[in-house]
Every structure is written in C-alpha cells, then in structure tokens.
C-alpha cells in the first residue's frame, strides 16, 4: 500500500545509498522531502477507522511511522541487505526495542563482555525483570557455546569493539545461535554496512547507532534495528506504537542524507586510519597500536575477511607514561576534537579510562584491557598528515 521506489534489482551499495527510500511526491522533488508533521489526515471517518485498525497501510501518527523515517528505514535496510528496519530515537533505544520485542522474564541472553558500556548496563538492568545475561569473551566462540542454556533466546555481539578493536567471528556465533534456537543480533556501528554486512554471515538482526557513521557528521542522535520484514512488523512495530522510542523525522532526514556519502566516507576514513596506525607503530612513545588493519592485530585475518579488507576508522594506542603520557598527547592536539563521540568527519580523540570507561573500577578496566595510557582516535576526513603532526606534539614532549 505504501509504494516502493521503482529501481532495478541487484543495485550495489553506493547506488542504494543515494536512491532507496520512498518514491517522490507529486512535485517530483529530487532530494528527499522532510515531512515535519505529527499526524496525517484521512479522507473520511471510515478510512481513519480502517487505518487505525491496521486494515489499511497508511501514515497515521508519527509516533508509529512517518514518510521521512520510512525512507531512512528502507535505505538502511537495503544497505544491510535485510528486508526490514525500524528507526529509533537513539542507538540505545534500538537495543531497548530489541529486548522489549524479543524477550520475556525467564529468558537468557549471551553477550560479549567487550560491547559498548551502556549496552552492558542495559542488559544488566533487565535482570530485575527476570532476563539474565551471561557476558563472555568477544573472541572465543567456545565461551559463547558454553554459556548457552535451554532458555537462551538472544546472542548479542559488536565488532570491532570500542576501544580495543577486538573482532568476533560473526559466522561462528550465528552457527551457535542457530544450533541453540536463539537469534544473533550484531551492533554494526563501527563498520557500518559499507564495510560489513552481518546478514551475509548469518546474523538475524543488526543494530545501529545512526549517531555515528550513518549520519557521519556528528549532528544527531539516532538508531535502528534491521531484520527480516515479518520479524520487524510482528515484534518491533507494536513496541514502537506503545513505547514510543520514535525517531524524529528531522533526525531521520539528516541520517538519510548522511547515508548518501557513507561508502566514500568509510573508504576514505579507513584509509587514513590505516596510515595513522602504521605511523603510530613507528613512534618511540607508543607501546602498542590496536587496529584490525595491522597484521599484528590478533584477529587481523578474520577482520579482513569480515570487513571487506578494511580495518575501519578507529585506532587506539597505548602511550608510555600511563595517564600522564596519554593526557600529554591529548592536550598537545589543536586540530583533533577532544570528545568521546566517533563517526564524525572531524577526527576525535579521547581517553577511554576517564571517559567512556570512567565509571568502571580500575580492576574492571584492567580486566577489560583498558589501561591508563590508552588513547582512542576516531579518524575523520582531516588530512592525516595534519593529524600526525597534531599527535606528535604530545608524543615528542619530554616526560
Ligand atoms: C554510540 C554507540 C551506541 C549507542 O548509540 P547512541 O546513538 O549514542 O544511543 C551503541 N553501540 C555502539 C557500538 C556505539 O558506539
């Protein structure tokens, strides 16, 4: 009922990124319209009744759906190679939607212990509703298999992880999930579909923080769940209607237009990150570089196979001299933005121990491999030679 774009089958990612969505309105606009409206008008009461009863597909109220949000959802679903997608107000509310839509008291989740900090917190919070989560090693599929119980309904992974860029074997986890009658959800924030399509490796659901590479310019908070069309319609659309973690049309439009440049941005930012990672390895003040694109990375081969031969755009490195050494590097910069966000065209730099992982105890941080000397750089579109010069101030400063 809601029409589809008239496009040939088998279009490639870069074409889908600028074309997929909804057909234009009667005015024939070439750039996608922004529908800032909370509700939609019906021709008569009987039609309104049919639409509210879900007997006729139409836009009714923007908490449920909105044409700009639908365009963003269809575009992202196409990029991920999945049948359906539902936009949410943030990446975290996408994970909340996943839990509310799929799980009930008594169900069990297996999750990587290295996923985004707020994701760990959210799964832990659901213990009070009777949903328990086992946290296991990101890189050892055997640990995931061992954690499975008859009550396991969901496996949740993220790859590569923040900030240590650990890579999990998505195909191996998909096999474990399937054997146990559970679903595998992958947070694809760090690679985006431009580098990694979890569905091709057997994942059932893909989570996004649209805030990061999909927007790509650090402007809005947004999120999405992608999956088979029937699963999205049966499990998540009803949650959206009642719980209302809706994506605003304006934010959807920003992400929709951001996705048009996703492919070229991911290629350019990853190429810069690779150059930076090699350069960092040569610096005497740097003890270790964490980047999947380096042959020294423990899951380098897996990452190259899984991520289109690319390491992504996030590089972390351990500076000699602990926290002081790390602060010296961060405070020596004048170009990099000192902020914990990532996926921006502006290169960002952060100290994970005191920001994203600041709420953990030092013992928990060390168990996670996050040391005081660790610095994370999310490479943007700055000329990487300028970023190297920017980092050199602190790397060369006398201790
Ligand atoms: C930022 C982030 C999230 C949360 O997304 P928000 O849009 O900030 O809610 C989830 N997962 C990963 C990997 C992230 O980097």
Give a structural overview.
- The structure is a single chain.
- The protein has helices at 13-19, 45-52, 67-80, 91-102, 117-125, 141-147, 170-179, 192-195, 229-243, 249-258, 262-281, 300-306, 322-331, 362-367, 384-396; strands spanning 84-88, 108-112, 132-136, 152-158, 183-187, 205-209, 223-227, 286-290, 314-319, 337-338, 348-350, 374-378.
- The protein has 399 residues and is of the alpha/beta class.
- The chain has a domain at 262-395: Aspartate Aminotransferase, domain 1 (Alpha-Beta Complex).
- α8 links the parallel β5 (183-187) and β6 (205-209).
- α13 (322-331) packs across α15.
- The chain is globular and about 75 Å long.
- The model has no long low-confidence stretch (mean pLDDT 96).
- The site of pyridoxal-5'-phosphate (PLP) has 14 residues, from α4.
């Amino acid at each position: 009922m809601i029409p589809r774009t008239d496009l040939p089958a088998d279009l490639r990612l870069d074409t889908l990124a600028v074309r997929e969505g909804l057909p234009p309105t009667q005015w024939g606009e070439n750039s996608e319209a922004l529908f800032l409206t909370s509700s939609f008008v019906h021709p008569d009461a009987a039609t309104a009744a049919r639409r509210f009863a879900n007997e006729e597909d139409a836009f009714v109220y923007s908490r449920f759906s909105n044409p700009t949000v639908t365009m963003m959802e269809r575009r992202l679903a196409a990029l991920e190679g999945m049948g359906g997608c539902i936009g949410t107000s943030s990446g975290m509310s996408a994970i909340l939607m996943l839990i509310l839509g799929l799980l009930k008291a008594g169900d069990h989740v297996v999750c990587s212990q290295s996923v985004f900090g707020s994701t760990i917190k959210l799964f832990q919070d659901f213990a009070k509703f009777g949903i328990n989560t086992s946290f296991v090693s990101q890189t050892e599929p055997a640990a995931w298999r061992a954690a499975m119980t008859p009550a396991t309904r969901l496996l949740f992974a993220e790859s590569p992880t923040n900030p240590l860029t650990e890579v999990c074997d998505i195909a191996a986890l998909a096999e474990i999930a399937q054997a146990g009658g559970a679903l595998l959800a992958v947070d694809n924030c760090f690679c985006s579909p431009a580098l990694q399509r979890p569905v091709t490796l057997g994942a059932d659901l893909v989570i996004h923080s649209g805030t990061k590479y999909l927007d790509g310019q650090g402007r809005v908070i947004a999120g999405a769940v992608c999956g088979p069309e029937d699963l999205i319609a049966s499990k998540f659309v009803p949650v959206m209607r009642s719980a209302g973690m809706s994506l605003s049309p304006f934010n959807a439009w920003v992400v929709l237009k951001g996705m048009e440049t996703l492919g070229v941005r991911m290629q350019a930012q990853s190429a810069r990150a690779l150059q930076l990672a090699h350069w960092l390895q040569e610096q005497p003040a740097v003890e270790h570089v964490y980047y999947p694109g380096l042959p020294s990375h423990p899951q380098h081969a897996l990452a190259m196979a899984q991520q289109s031969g690319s390491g992504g755009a996030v590089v972390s490195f351990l500076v000699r001299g602990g926290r002081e050494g790390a602060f010296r590097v961060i405070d020596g910069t004048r170009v990099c933005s000192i902020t914990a966000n990532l996926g921006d065209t502006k290169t960002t730099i952060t100290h994970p121990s005191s920001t994203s992982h600041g709420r953990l105890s030092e013992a928990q941080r060390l168990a996670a491999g996050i040391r005081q000397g660790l610095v994370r750089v999310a490479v943007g579109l700055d000329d990487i030679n300028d970023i190297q010069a920017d980092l050199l101030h602190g790397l060369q400063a006398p201790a």
